[in-house]
Amino acid sequence: MSDEELEPIEILELPLGDWHRARGARMVEFAGYHMPIQYEGIMAEHLWTRENAGLFDVSHMGQLMLSGEGAADALEMLVPGDISALKEGRMRYSLLLDEDGGILDDLMVTSTPMGLYVVVNGAVKWDDIGFLREYLPDEITINHMDDRALLALQGPKAVDALLRVVPGVDALFFMEAGSFFWGPKSDPEPLWISRSGYTGEDGFEISVPASHAKALADALCAQAEVKPIGLGARDSLRLEAGLPLYGHDMNPEIDPVEGNASFAISKRRREEGGFNGADRILKALAQGPAQKLVGFAVDGKMPVREGAPVFAQDGQVGSITSGGFAPSVGAPIAMGYVDSQHTPVGTKLEAEVRGKRVALTVAALPFIPHHYHRRGKAL
Length: 379
Prior knowledge:
20% of the residues lie in helices and 34% in strands. By secondary structure, it is α+β, with helices and mostly antiparallel strands. The longest helix is centred in the middle third of the chain and has 11 residues. The mean pLDDT is 96.
């Protein structure tokens, strides 16, 4: 078949696609979907979320339910987190690992009465589902809940706005989740809500039947604190918060230690191993990685973007994986990989941008403090 005969790949619509367009969103293709990149502008939307509450449509993400006897133990073969110890309503960030310990995806796992609720990245969700079906035992059922939308309400005033729409959500703390009902008492809709998100702010992620997503989005945006926010601000918010974006800051060539995600390897798993790539990963924990993901403060006003090489004098020592202007910082920032001897905070380096050298300084992550609503130090 010639290139001319290849059928174009269909770009899918989100349940809220028309809702976004009606609100003036500029739509782009992302992860196989038409998605809103901005409404009134990335800078304004970013700052609004930091100060108020922003509503993000993340329905492109994969929502999975893993059920069956031994589901947690089976999943622990593929992730380095302590899943079997999760209490009902508690969540854990983890990493889906290939046989060599490379990162196939980062994901959230929550213990629910129905099984393990797993949220995976939209761009690789079909690969993840295929991988799980191949490696999990046949008695573990994988339900892809493609009849549900996923909304994220993020910002310091998110709890005030959501509480008016869904009573009781203020009882949740960071990395906790539960079942709630919304709508008329005669016919309420079930919601699964977690106090989590990817902006560094307090906030919630709300799983809602796709058929009711528009009504819920309308109800949330009717609150004075809430505006719809696009992908552009989502990216700058997560970058300031030092949160990696899969496919950019993480990929199958990177292991969790290199990816600055050692925190996702629980104490018990470090002692027992028993997960994909454990030998490689535990060795890197003990001896240190050859390279590592770090943050960079950028001198001047020129942003450094993904792919820019990083130099120490005349020798290349790494590359940029994410970068851009940070509205809350008021300057360009970036993340990227450098070899181990250049990872200490304060190390002076340079990036090459359009044939010119831009001064960088290795910076502590996150670039701005996280504002999660934590129950206590244990979380």
